[in-house]
Predict the 3D structure of the following.
Amino acid sequence: MSLPFDDDALAAAPSPSAGSARLLDKLNPEQLEAVTLPAEPALILAGAGSGKTRVLTTRIAWLLQTGQVSPGGVMAVTFTNKAAKEMLTRLTTMLPVNARGMWIGTFHGLCNRFLRAHWKMANLPQSFQIIDTGDSQSAVKRLIKAMNLDEERYVPKQVAWFIAGSKDDGRRPKDVDIKDVHTAKLVEIYQAYEDQCQREGVVDFAELMLRSYELLRDHPELREHYRRRFRHILVDEFQDTNRLQYAWLRMFAGQPGERDVAALFAVGDDDQSIYGFRGAQVGNMADFEREYHVAKVIKLERNYRSFGNILDSANALIAHNAGRLGKNLRTEAGPGEPVRVFEATSDFAEAQWLIEEIQQLVRSGTRFVEQAVLYRSNAQSRVIESALFNAGIAYRVYGGLRFFERAEVKHALAYLRLIENPNDDTSFLRVVNFPARGIGARSVETLQDAARASGRSLYQSVSAVSGAAGAKLAGFNKLIDDLHEATRGETLRMIIERMLATVGLIEFYRNEKEGQDRIENLEELVNAAEAFVTQEGFGKDAVALPVDETAPPGSIAEPGPGEPDALAAVNLLPDADTGEILSPLAAFLTHAALEAGDNQAQAGQDAVQLMTVHAAKGLEFDAVFITGLEEGLFPHENSVTQISSKGGGDGLEEERRLMYVAITRARQRLYMSFCQTRMLHGQTRYNIKSRFFDELPEAALKWITPKQQGFGSGYAQQYQQAWQRGSGLHGVVGTGRNEGWRPGSSSSSSEAEVFRPPPLPTAMANSAAKAAGHGLRQGMSVFHNKFGEGVVLTLEGTGNDARAQVNFGRHGAKWLALSVAKLTPIE
DNA sequence: CGTGCGTCGATTTTT
DNA sequence: TCGACGCACG
């Protein structure tokens, strides 16, 4: 992982210009221009399939190779973990770069890293935990109940949405414009929610962003430090940034007109902005161009993905949107096949037609895995799944629950969180009576009242409950306490195994009818933790960078050889003062919150890919089916009626961009279909074809069912009849049964093997062996300047990476980076 | 305190 | 149609 790449190595590198020429070899003129732009604010308008990721990664590689910046001076921001990983992978294949020290990651991942390094300044506990949307919602719900508010009027989900939305706009409770009584109450809840999170030591996703933004805003010395450090900031999918994310970027880069403004390199495509509904501001692109005086917007319009007919369709469609930055995709690949359009009599018939075409494509050499069926909303997948299942075609559905979102995994994580921090009320409530311990709603309510009265956590308030209920609660507290004590000094694996053996989750699921899968997932959690230990920065390469004396207190230094992986969701920046680092458990919990895990089960299997159009963004396939192109569905009726949703802009235009995204996923063949009748919410609806058909060029289309043919005639029916004769009892994937199929339970392909990280060598973990250099031993008494006397519980890692868990009694057990912390053995 | 039944509501989603 | 969720009952 770590190849030498510092300034000396650079100087010694053979002829940088020759190297950079090789690097730039395969670029077209526009790409080349973008990659080699001077260090100034830049906006790259990158069309679908125009080599966006290549430009981003080559830009970084070029900057490094030509010595314009060292790895530590680069920040690259994405929205998804997947994109971040891909960027790093491609970068490292391009250049033997030491990724350590580079800040490549998601917005939230980088915020986490930043806040971990400056937790004191940010007024957070060092091991603050991140809560997901669900946790945040249940916290709000609790508050609404506690405040005796009407849940009809203050719907928890909506209130949570209000809070997140306010944060995304950079507004604290005091900044919200109170127009009416209702808003006043919402703000009151918002304030109470903030207090509660602070008390519990948890932050939600929006808080990660807002808190780090405010930290930079309010601390000039910190701001200057980071501005000196990050000279190049590259942003992917810039059209998806919200207000806060843009403000955050400006904080890191410097405001326009200030000195030392970093080179902000924004890559995006306004035509692919499809997340307005969650606060994305396409307008950020135009704002950025104006505010930072971007000299020349570079457009990447040459498409390397699709044939002409496909691109003609995309171009013609998107031309119906107003206020675009303006861009036209072109290819040198020739027109290719026409876009085939099919009119089905019913959703059922549409699915049968799909099967026929998919099989035809396979016969002509296109593998299943290269075929994607896209739809606007998830509900549409049912019919299609059912048809594929009956036809014995393997398929995979994207979306759905990811590993760390599964109920049983969340329960296990809640126990782990309580071990780490018993005052985490959200986790407390989740598992205090799961599995059942005879602690009912009544007891919990009493406890909550007591906690509220004293302003303390549930855990701390248990003693205030008397009687049988109090005894049972005390029993639960003891369970947590005992685990906390017993796991002190244990490896992550041992901690999880002990927890599972103690809390009774496994036994509970053993008695459940369909509990076996859940038990397997719990066992999988151990593997996930092991994988984390080796992959995410706790392995042999991890930890401890030297402290920069000139840096502000608690800040990080220029990256040194020991800085954790650029991608590590959690890094172990030791506190500059004490050398204290995050415990492996706390780090793993953070990882679980920040990266919900894959749902890309069986990625290697040759199966048809089913997903929403949103989920398809960024992917490409040889053949693409866009289904359900009906008025009301696609474009969706809610979007059409909606008078400019949150992100501003026209709902219909966003639907059109969505269609544009769908079209541009196809390499060779594109199919579109719509149904005359469709079963929706238990009712048969009669639809007309999507208005988008009127916006596509006739010359690029081929109607499989002649347009004038009416209901019930022609191909559609023939397909249906043909299918009815030939199908029904085809071979079936997976279970070999044809009955009892249920979407969602789909035994065939989608659900089965989620998240199976590779097995790993267990050697490194619990080495009680004496690590070279530091001369410490397990059980040894040591002295620390801040924490005083302590006993060494655990030793891990070697050399620069060496770390120890030390029990300081009154101060508790702490993890220390030995390269930083000064520990003196006491005889 | 757990189960069963009725009501309600149903774009899109990453972190 | 189907699932999540709240409430009433045993």
Remarks:
- The CA atoms of residues 415 and 814 of chain A lie 20 Å apart.
- DSSP finds 29 helices and 22 strands in chain A.
